[in-house]
Amino acid sequence: MSSTTGRKRVTERHYSAEEQALDQISKEAEARIQARRAARAEAREIRLREIAKQQKEEEERLKTQEADSGKSLSSYSGSRRGSDESTSTDTDLRDKDPKDAVRQYKSMLRDYEEKYKKAMSTNAQLDNQKHTLVYQVELLKDQLEEQEESMIEVQRQYKDKCREFENQKRSFIDLEFQYNGLKEQMSYRDRFLQESGFTVVSTEEGMLKLEKCSTMTNGPIIPQGSLLVSDEAAEMLAKAGEGSLDDKLRKFLEEKKRLLEEIKSLQKDIEDERSKKDKSPKVPQMNGPEMQLYEVQREASKQIHEYKLKLQKAEQDIGTYEATVNRLEQQIKRYKFDAEEAEKTEDELKTEKRRLQRELRDSQNQVEELQNQNKHLKKRLEKVKQTRSALLNFNE
């Protein structure tokens, strides 16, 4: 019994260490997921601030370009008015200076237009590249989220497999423990049979169930099962010939009755002979049937003692099994609690996923609004270009 309790303590310590390791792994995984979520939210906020900042810079740049174009046109018209006034006062400068100034302004305006066109083309290219990169970044984010979700699913499956493996391992250990116990019981039974000189005799049906040997009575004997008998009894049953065990025992009972009647008649004859002879009082001696009865009683007391030992061992085994059942019930309760916690975590993850999807839809709506604003600004820029070209044509 001490060996069984020692094995039980070792297995319990082993189980507690494995459970602590699994709990530690799950806590670390949850901490990593929370850190990823926080980093993702922070990156999202930074990205939104950058987009707002770029939008403001773009608006300010467009405003400055519009102001510069207005100033250039006003300066050009002012120079024309100044040249007209100068022509009215000075006839010599009217033929030379205004034309040179107009040519110079036209050349400068062409240079500015070329530079402006180049800047706008580069701006458009950069804008296209920016949109392409933003789209690629969004795709990569979606792929990353999908991979994280798949990784979480794989981790959950891994935890389930680990739990299943631990359950199978515990059940294997329990079965191995039961197997060792049954093996010890079988070896004890074989040793007991070998020491006591008994053997197992099966009936014609071939059933090998062991039954306690009862005293021989005149009642019916169950033909099924096996009986634990001595080697001599087995030889006697073999010499009894063919037939069922009931028939063999009936023959033995009839023969026993006949022998008892003969013994009684012989005892009666002996008593008659002794009474006839006037001898000294007889001293009771243990011989004949009395000796056999004493042997039977001693054998019965021996078997009773052995059955008591078996009963004590069975009670000890029952106590061990009850402790194992209690431990398994505690494990089942703990597994149920873990399953409930996992379901709660799954619900929280689902709500988090729905929230992220809502944020994604809001971000997409914001992107669409920004694209519409960009189109509107491009249209305004085209109108400014057309107005400017019309003014240039009018001045020429």
UniProtKB/TrEMBL annotation:
Q: Which domain of life is it from?
A: Eukaryota
Q: Where would one find coiled-coil regions in this protein?
A: none
Region annotated Disordered, chain positions: 1-23, 54-103, 270-290, 340-375
Which intervals carry biased composition (Basic residues)? 1-11
UniProt cross-references to Pfam families, sorted A to Z: LRRFIP (PF09738)
In what ranges is there compositional bias, type Polar residues? Answer: 363-374
In terms of InterPro entries, this protein maps to:
LRRFIP1/2 (IPR019139)
- Composition-biased stretches, type Basic and acidic residues, lie in 54-69, 91-103, 270-281
Indicate, by first and last residue, each region the UniProt record lists as having compositional bias (Low complexity).
Answer: 70-80
Q: Which UniProt keywords apply?
A: Coiled coil
For this chain, the family text in UniProt reads: Belongs to the LRRFIP family.
Give the protein's recorded name: Leucine-rich repeat flightless-interacting protein 2
Upper classification of the source organism reads:
Eukaryota, Metazoa, Spiralia, Lophotrochozoa, Mollusca
